[in-house]
Amino acid sequence: MNTILEQFKDKINGTFAFFDRMIIKGHIRQFFSTSGKVFFLSEQNVLLKDFSVYASQVTSDIVAHVEKMAEETHRPMRYPFFI
């Protein structure tokens, strides 16, 4: 493969190598108020008693999607040691 480094190797004095990373953080703004939580869960047809199951499923879906994206793009997955 003819990379840009190979094309211009006579003009390049050195290179830096860094990890590419994607940090996924987020929140649902509606969850900041009690009425917002109730409204959001109502829209999702989730009863309060079923919230932990719903949250676990959504988390699993997000993790699976990110892992699939990383695999398709041949990028490593690194989980942080802290949350």
Features:
83 residues, mainly alpha
pLDDT averaged over residues: 82
Distance between the termini: 40 Å
> How does the helix and strand content classify structurally?
mainly alpha
Using the CA coordinates, give the radius of gyration: 21 Å
The major pleated sheet works out as: none
What are the segments in which pLDDT stays under 50 over at least 5 consecutive residues?
A: none
Helix content class: 40-55%
Order of helices and strands: HHH
Please count the helical segments. Answer: 3
- Can you tell me the overall shape? elongated
| Beta-strand segment tally | 0
Strand residue content? under 5%
Task: Lay out the secondary structure.
Elements: H1 4-7, H2 34-43, H3 51-72
Written account of the structure:
The protein is mostly helical. It contains three helices and no strands. The chain has helices spanning 4-7, 34-43, 51-72. It is elongated, with a radius of gyration of 21 Å. It starts with a helix and ends in an 11-residue tail after the last helix. The model has no long low-confidence stretch (mean pLDDT 82).
Describe, in short, the structure shown.
The chain is an all-alpha fold. The protein has 3 helices and no strands.
